[in-house]
Amino acid sequence: MTLTEINKKYNTQAKCLKLLEKLRWGKTVKCTYCQSTNNKRQKSDPLRHTCKNCKRSFSVFVDTIFEDTRLPLPKWFTIIGLMLNSKSGIASAELKRNVGGSYKSSYYAAMRVRIGMLQKDTKLNGIIEMDESYFGGKARKRRKSKSHDNINDLSTATNKRGRGTNKVSVAGMVQRKGKVKTKVIEKLTKRNLLYMLKTYAKKENAILVTDGFRSYKELETYIERLEINHKKKFSRGMVHVNTIEGFWSYVKNGIKGNFKSISKKYLPFYLVEYEWKFNHRNFKGNQFEKFLKNALTHEKELEYWKAQSSKEVKEIVYG
Ligand SMILES: [Zn+2]
């Protein structure tokens, strides 16, 4: 949907609300607390329903990214439309220029929209490229003495993995011509990578393509794996990680071009946004409604966001 279509079709709070209720409940309104369908719309406040079973009152906002919002829904819808239609991200300052109000309210709405973009059901198969990338930070001075690691730090192989820096390591997997999934992983151990692989990929009928990093090699006990040869100038046929490398540069260019800086803590939210964009690059249906439906089912992530938002963030990550 274009922004004009969204603004035209959903220009009042009531129209927006009707769509949200339809997408969340279909024809039968369910109590958000006890799931009972025995409830009634309130006459005094058509936004709310009263449950006859548990006697509580609720709205479609309960446990969603819209909970406790004071921003009118048509403005929310504009922000969502702008974010979905932007190719490489959009700054909160620009959102503010479009919907008015404070920078802070646009920023918070944008962060919640990112939560709504989280795709829990990603399952990859076929040829899966796995690779990691490092975000931001400056190289830290190498620590003197203590561990044996110092010896390793001198080798290019370990420097390549960003060790001895305060960069954030992000592991990513992408199915050829399919979806991408990323995860901030502090330590790129076999155990952590295996957990990610098991969560987001179907092992049956899948082949993993990685470089020769030891932790990837060790995944062979779990899944069939092909290794690329970095020394050869051109990739050999299907054995390459060009797709995931393309995704990393898409994310980094997007961050650099649209957001001055992103904190380490909030990097995962932006990664979720770029994943959504990448995964819908060829989507032909109604992405606006698909997003809303996805966003209306994210209770746990919202709790996480609330807890995270209370503290001021110091560390800065550059794309
Ligand atoms: Zn109830």
Order of helix and strand elements from N to C terminus: HHEEEHHHEHHEEHEHEHEHHHE
Major sheet characteristics: 5 strands, mixed
Please count the helical segments. 13
The total strand number stands at 10
Q: How does the helix and strand content classify structurally?
A: alpha+beta
Strand content: 15-25%
Based on CA atoms alone, the radius of gyration comes out at 22 Å
What number of structural domains do the residues give?
Answer: 2
CATH superfamily of the largest domain: Ribonuclease H-like superfamily/Ribonuclease H
CATH-defined fold name of the largest domain: Nucleotidyltransferase, domain 5
Named at the architecture level, the CATH assignment of the largest domain is: 2-Layer Sandwich
Task: Calculate the mean pLDDT score and round it.
Answer: 85
Shape type: globular
Strand order of the largest sheet: 6-5-4-7-8
Characterise the protein shown here:
The protein has 319 residues and is an alpha+beta fold. It folds into two domains: 3-116, no CATH class; 124-282, Ribonuclease H-like superfamily/Ribonuclease H (Nucleotidyltransferase, domain 5), CATH 3.30.420.10. Helices cover 41% and strands 16% of the residues. The strands form three sheets. It has a five-stranded mixed sheet with strand order 6-5-4-7-8, with helices on both faces. A three-stranded antiparallel sheet has the order 1-2-3, with no helix packed on it. α3 packs across α5 and α10 crosses α11 (267-279). The two termini are 29 Å apart. The model is unreliable at 139-159 and 309-319 (pLDDT under 50). The protein binds zinc ion. Zinc ion binds next to loops.
